[in-house]
Fold this sequence. Notes:
Radius of gyration of chain A: 23 Å
CATH class of the largest domain in chain A: Alpha Beta
Shape of chain A: globular
Largest sheet of chain A: 5 strands, mixed
Oligomer: homodimer
Order of helices and strands of chain A: HEHHEEEEEHEEEHEHEEEHHHEHEH
Amino acid sequence: xxxxxxxxxxxxxxxxxxxxxxxxxxxxxxxxxxxxxxxxxxxxxxxxxxxxxxxxxxxxxxxxxxxxxxxxxxxxxxxxxxxxxxxxxxxxxxxxxxxxxxxxxxxxxxxxxxxxxxxxxxxxxxxxxxxxxxxxxxxxxxxxxxxxxxxxxxxxxxxxxxxxxxxxxxxxxxxxxxxxxxxxxxxxxxxxxxxxxxxxxxxxxxxxxxxxxxxxxxxxxxxxxxxxxxxxxxxxxxxxxxxxxxxxxxxxxxxxxxxxxxxxxxxxxxxxxxxxxxxxxxxxxxxxxxxxxxxxxxxxxxxxxxxxxxxxxxxxxxxxxxxxxxxxxxxxxxxxxxxxxxxxxxxxxxxxxxxxxxxxxxxxx
Amino acid sequence: xxxxxxxxxxxxxxxxxxxxxxxxxxxxxxxxxxxxxxxxxxxxxxxxxxxxxxxxxxxxxxxxxxxxxxxxxxxxxxxxxxxxxxxxxxxxxxxxxxxxxxxxxxxxxxxxxxxxxxxxxxxxxxxxxxxxxxxxxxxxxxxxxxxxxxxxxxxxxxxxxxxxxxxxxxxxxxxxxxxxxxxxxxxxxxxxxxxxxxxxxxxxxxxxxxxxxxxxxxxxxxxxxxxxxxxxxxxxxxxxxxxxxxxxxxxxxxxxxxxxxxxxxxxxxxxxxxxxxxxxxxxxxxxxxxxxxxxxxxxxxxxxxxxxxxxxxxxxxxxxxxxxxxxxxxxxxxxxxxxxxxxxxxxxxxxxxxxxxxxxxxxxx
DNA sequence: CGACATACGTGAATTGGTTACATAAGTGGA
DNA sequence: TCCACTTATGTAACCAATTCACGTATGTCG
Lengths: 365, 365
């Protein structure tokens, strides 16, 4: 239930600040009159709001446009460089960090390899180093990082603690959000990697126009992330989408059978070339995948199913059989598309999560 | 995305009207000062709001309290009888209609049997007759019915049309909401029965304190309804929760095996008495149920799983083995409870859905 | 250089809300 | 019966946010 609070006059200003800010960010740079028109507010109100935002450092005046008719209008722009957020993927064999401004423009990447057998403390140190290097390398002051989000495999509870990890040694029980908060002394969040990848697709990828999304992250292990109404649905324990653990679904050994003796890329390549055995194996893998995916699709009836992660790069060689099997299994199968992002999806989703936090807590609402 | 509109002063009044109305409905009857205290608004504002609501017919002044200290305060109450809603279950072999006031108090029930083989038009006529009889019998004028909602088995799309029904003859394609709208000339909604039953449990049943709920309706056929954030999650095509159609899940023939030669009630009775064969059959049924339920639970990771419908009345004889199998299948199995409502759950959920519509559309927000 | 277009600046009016304080209308005890 | 006490009501002054109206400023174009 939405907690409904009474409103005095200052509520109006809050609402109109949000409206104006949103319009300004969409427009990039705009005049008072333009903002008044798109928001439906009077020019005077927009001006008052922008004055306030200017004092708080979120908005700056830019030089007026030249060559236009009439008196030149003052122009304003959102100060995307007023603050920054960091999104980090703490993966099995790599750390990926992204630094983004308040518009979500990624201005720096940093990447580091890490052994899959590395103990938790070592992985955490690598993550911290990578995040700090990313920020320092871009010449951004650390105190300007307003929020950090981290994504990792396994089940992450709502406090940002890894409550269960099967793949990473010593990872269960790690308070990822708590530790990440110390990197920059900022608020910090943590979530499951597939969930974040789903968020990324909804933000700037294949799922922009979908509201309910199931994202299946496929690689050595498969996991799923779920968006309901465009928002993360982690579930009570952060375990939503963990369908792979159901024996009947068969995600456990699906990947193992696929690769058996060759690398996954080789198998997909061979299947694309028409190799009978490879085609059969890919089809079998697709079927297993489709069983789990259909369980999710039937449960949630999403607008869209996105396949991402390493194996998704295979493209239609894999997508087609998945679509075929899914259609057999589902009453009304959702559209199936490939992820837009490659390795960066999780970090981009983490950036989005951190931005969500900033927009909620700092910019108000 | 929440469409963010600019606010002028009248927005404040809207917000404060909602706050006041909610406080008044919670309190039942209250004075201006009391409402001011709980809402955080000034007495004057509350008075102005209540004046308006009084003119619109939603609030009435009641005689002041006697015997209290100080000047007697004017007292106000929500006029729950300003309007009514009707909730109808259009089931396989019965129609159940409930008439409720704006507080959701059910003031009349009406029930009619209908043959499972009855063609669609006959079932629809029975539904209309039952709904009208319910309202007429309570002495409520038909024009005071502000909204109607109907629940039925099968997949109901977001326009309220039955897009797929396996059990009821000729039911696929019926525009249930459209037809129900003609009964009273009111707005009308339609949804899947399990979804509505879930809503009922969340409103006044076993799931009041849960936010994400999976409700499994078990009887001759099993279906599921899903609540996310306390709200209905029908999915893109209204098919969310239709996990039973997945072959691997085995809901298709679970019930058939259970009853085989006896009635379900007899089997549960026998199992309770310790009959080995009956216990074995119930356990097998519970396992099948748990497989499907665990797929839903893993997908959504709900706060609570509610078992309802005819078979759920068996109680712990069935619940216990379901819990046991579920714990084996799920990483972190949700709590499992029995539904609070018997046959009335769907109609009560329909009442809630109709009330939701009224509160949204008529009372504003 | 004047006509035109467009944005800016200011003041009054409106709406909705709050605080402060005098006044009204009960109860309870002397 | 009357007076103190308690609690609610009524009224006035004030504030915050917004809008509208209108005059003024500042550019371009012919």
